[in-house]
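Annex B. Sample input.
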Amino acid sequence: MASYSVKCWEGEHMPYVTLMVICLVIYVVGIPITSVAWLRRKRHLIQSEANSVSGQLFREAYGQLFASYNARHYYFEGVEMIKKMILAGGLVLVAPGSSVQILIGILVAFAFFATVLQLKPYEDATDNKLQAFATAQIIMTLLAGLVIQTDVTGEYQEIVMSVLLIIINGSVVVLGLV
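Annex B, continued. Sample output.
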C-alpha cells in the first residue's frame, strides 16, 4: 500500500533507493557483463575444436550462452541481454507514456537490427534472418505504437491498426515455423 507520509529521496526512503541501485547494477549491468567477461576468459575453449574434457564440460555448462553463435561472436548473447533489458525495463525510466519513450525504443531496436545485419552473429544463416526479421517486427510494432500514441483515430483506424499489429506480430511466428 502506498504511504504518502514517506517523502521520496530522503529519510527512510533512501536505504531502499540504495538497495535498488545495487540490485540494478548487479542484475541489469552485472549479469551481461559478467557473462561476456567469463566467456572472453574461456574463449579458447569456445573457439577451439579440440575435444578436451575441460572443453566438453565448459560447453555443457555454458553452451547455451554461445552455442548458437559463430565462434567469433561468442559474446553476442550479452548484447542480446542488454537489448532486452533496455527495451523491457530501461524504457520505463524514459518519459513514461510519451512518444519520446517509443522513439528511443525504435532507436535501440534499429541499432540492434543494424548490428545483426552487419555481424551476422549466428552460426545458422536462417537464425540470422529470423533475428533480423524479429527485430524489424519490434521496430514496426513500436512505429505502430507511435502512430497510435500521436494520432487521435476513429473506430475504423483502431480496427486497421489492430489487424496490422496482429499481422506484424504473427508473421514472426509464421516465419519461425517455416
